[in-house]
Structures are given as structure tokens and as C-alpha cells.
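step 3/5: co-fold with fructose -6-phosphate
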Amino acid sequence: MCGIVGVLGDHEVAPILVEALKRLEYRGYDSAGIATVQDGRLDRRRAVGKLANLSDVLVHDPLAGKSGIGHTRWATHGGPTVTNAHPHQAGRVAVVHNGIIENYRDLRARLSHRTFVTETDTETVAQLCEDFLDQGLGRREAATETLKHLDGAYALAFLFQGEADLIVAARKGSPLAIGHGEGEMFVGSDAIALSPMTNLITYLDEGDYAFVTRDGAQIFDAHGRLANRDARTIPAQAAQLDKGGHKHFMAKEIFEQPVVLSDCLNDYIVGDTVTFPDDVDFTDTDRMILVACGTAHYACVVAKYWFEQLAGLPCDVDIASEFRYREPPVSDRATALFVSQSGETADTLAALRHVQEKAARVVSVVNVPESSIARESDVALPIHAGVEVGVASTKAFMNQLGVLATLAILAARQRGRIDAAREAALISELRSLPGLINQALALEDKIASHTAELSEAHSVLFLGRGPMFPMALEGALKLKEISYIHAEGYASGELKHGPIALIDKSVPVIVMAPKDALFDKTVSNMQEVMARDGRVWLITDADGAAQAGDGTWATLTMPRVDPILAPLLYAVPAQLIAYHTALHKGTDVDQPRNLAKSVTVE
Ligand code: F6R
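step 4/5: write C-alpha cells
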């Protein structure tokens, strides 16, 4: 959600903080701010809206100092105003925070002798710390005493008046990294934020706090014991934070898909067989539990079709925020699988912790190998999508599907459901996908030619059957996220049970249907729409277009693909429809309103 950075540098830190915040802006962009210590004095600058506004403020009202903290906000408590923007300051303490302090009301009541100026939960942290300073505690003790009183999830960085060589950093429920430089030290929400300054990173463990000075970091565990945490060199990723000639990161990421999918498949396929770490073993698994949020959840719904059809494994698929409180019985022979691009999604992490002791094995499919979800799983399978900057997930979804399809093939082999010839045939289909995706990308202009009309719609429906049903859900999610047009995905056969009441000529209906065994049934559903003046945009292959392309508002002819793997290919038109519609609407494609990339609050 929010992004945090801290620098104890050897030059002026304001520009360094702002640059680092740019790399964290994907986490939130309602407002931003920085605080520094200069000649012992704590001072801050804040601005509502994008980071560019903070940069403007700093041009007119610069902030000096070689030590500082910064923040980019995704509002939780209190609207996006300058007053509610971080850093929050109370007397001699400034604080930046990612997460939610759940007991902030109680803390406010306890601190009723102090004057609060914001609506935020975070201000209580600064006020409490200042209160401990008032009581005579030193800076480090005041900060650690403060932490003891906080319930909820947080990554925090404290900066103090009169002390230019100390940042107190703490992690509970939200990730925080410490970066090691030459006579300089850094704190950041992730390694990417710190990548131009250093790639030597120590991730704080859950419950850790640290006293960071220019000489290094002293790290303590949740019990206050000195802790030894490894510093690791994280591969440079800064180059990936360039739009590569595209207008938006989202476009770049859509067009990267053939390459990243191919890289991903190369990691899990050798010759004609899929290959995974030895402990990925489905032989004795009696049930799959797949849990995730948003787009990653739709990847799990697609995978359900694969695990059930190919491997004969029953699957339960859940939204993480429901699963974690539902208390579902978990078989001790179950394999629990968690899918997350960021690896930090609070609900998914909590769901993982819920099954950790119960399921036979916890496997995660993640894009960030150092993430909390990866580290807390028995086996973490990286998707190798590279940094995904666009808030709407595209290439990470593609590679989640790539790993899940490969895993389902492994499960089918291990459980004796497919022979070597079928495995080789499926792998050959998978290997053809990057090329087919390239062909689908070449349809961009055709797709774009209908999006001006689509952008006029108030509501759009997506339909699909079988593994294309979750693709209908994903197509609708992409469209609403970045174009702000209301859109819903339905299983084609479900339409007549209610949603068909919505159909009239103003509601475009996008039907995603390769010519598969269920195609005729989907065509019947499409006819039901057209009989009610509905405008159908059929996305199918040449056979499907020949059979059912007449009378539609639009028909897009896609390359042919094995129907079971069609979701990977049909992700492309779903993404391009959303992207081009958003361009017509003039929305902020990479940073759509109200969203954030890494959702570390419940
Ligand atoms: C949609 C999107 C979100 C994420 C969801 C889970 O385009 O990106 O729905 O898929 O917030 O995030 P991760 O995968 O990081 O757990």
C-alpha cells in the first residue's frame, strides 16, 4: 500500500528521497511527503496527489539535510489531504508508516492530553513516541516502547529532532528492507526503491526492529534479542523501471509477455518434461486449496480447471479475505497453493499462516522471491515476470498461469493421469504459446478499432465457459480497474439465470470463446443476447468465426490454440481491450484511481 523510504546519506537527501519515492509510487499515490534533519531541526514538506506535486513544493520551498524519511500514501484513515499526508510529526519525532494501527482509537484516548491534528492512525505513533520522550526516555527506548503498544500491521520509520544519525525501523505485517551503502544506510519498503543506491539488502523479519545509523544496522527480534539477519545482494532491477518506448508501463508489460512467459517456461520445463523441486509432490495429495486475491485469484480459478481435468485433483479455490475467517476444514493431505505477484498481500499471507500447520504442504507462486509469502511457504515457485509496475496486473497474471499450467501437468504425471506422450504434447502446446501471444499482440489495431465505442458504454459484460469463465472475470476486472467502466464477468450458461435482464443495445457483451467442445453452447447464449438487441463482440478462432461470426457487432479472430491452454492466449485481447478503452477515457492507466499495487492492509 504505502511506500516508505529512509536515508542516512553523505549528501543532501531530499532529491534521493523523491527519486526513491518515484519507484515506490506504485504502492500509493494519494499524497507524498518527506522529512529531514538539518542542523538538528526536524522539518517536512508534503503535497496532495502525485509525487510531481511534492517535487513542485520542493522547488519553491527546498528542504536541506543529509538524513531523512519519505512516504507515498494510499489513504486508509482520513482523506488525501496535506494534513493527513506522512511524515507525521509530534514534537521531536517524525514517522512514516505503511499498514494500519488497529488500536489507534484506544491510543488516542490514552493520549487525550496531547493535541492531535490529523485523522490518521499513524499520528498516534508519533504522539506516543513523543510522549515517551517527554517522560524522559531516550530516542531508541521511546521508539521501542511505542512499538510495544501498537496492534495491527506496520512498517515504520522514525526520525528524530537533534539526531541526524538515527532511523528506527520496525516491521510487523508489512515488509521493510534495510540497504547497506558505503558510509550511508537506507530503509525502504522494497529493494527496488533502494536499487540505485545499493543492492545489498537485509530484510527485517516479522516483529523485528532496527536502529539504523551510518555505521550499520542493529537488528532486534520481536523479543528484543539482538538478531542476526543476512544481507543479500539483490539483482539490479532498475533497468526494468523504464517504459521502453511505450506510453505506459502497462503497455510495455503486455508486450513483454511472450518473452517473460518463455523465460518462465524455460525454468520449469526441460526437454519434454516439466521439472520442479523434489518436494513439489502431488502423489499423496487428496485436495488442492488455492487461495489468492483479485487477478491472482482468477489465475487460481483457471488452475482449478487444469488440476481437476488433467490431474483428477479436487480443488477448492478461495478469495483470501474470505478463506482466512471461514475456518474451512483442511485435510492433512491437502496441498495449499497461494498465488501472489507481490508476495506481500496481507489477506493472502494471513490465509497462508492459517493453513501452515494443517496442510501437508504450502506452495506459493510469487513474483518476488524475497517476499513474505515466498519465505513462509514450504516451497516458493517464482514466476520470473520481472518487476511489474502497472497497477493492473498483466504479465504477472500470464506467468502465474504459466507456472500453474506446468504444475498441473506435473500433478497429472505424478498421479498417473497422463503418459509421457500426452505430457510432451501438452508441453509442446505450452511452448508454442509465446509465439501465439505475439500473433495476438499483432491484433492490437483491430482490437483498438472498437474501443472508442466501448468507452461510451456505462456497463459491459464478459462471458466465457469452462476455463474461459475466469477469463471473463479477469477481462471485466481489467476493464473496470483502468477505464472505470462498470463491467462484470459471467459464466455464459449463467446469463439466463438473472444477468440477461441487463441486456439491451447499450450493453456491449464480450464473448471469449475458442472453438472447443462447449462452443455450440456458448453460441446459443450469444444468440440469446443478440435476440435482445445486445451488441456482441465475439473473440474466437477462425473456426469459431466461420461458424458464429455473422450478426455480431464485432468478431476478433485469434490464433488457434489447444482449448485447455486458451486462457493464456485470450488474456491478451482482454488486456488490450481494457488498455485501449482506458486511453479513450483518458484515465491514469498505470496508476488508476483508488488502487495500489501491493495491498498490505486487510
Ligand atoms: C488486478 C490486480 C489485483 C491483484 C491483487 C493481488 O489487476 O493487480 O487484483 O491481483 O491485489 O495482488 P498480489 O498478486 O500481489 O497478491
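step 5/5: annotate
The mean pLDDT is 94.
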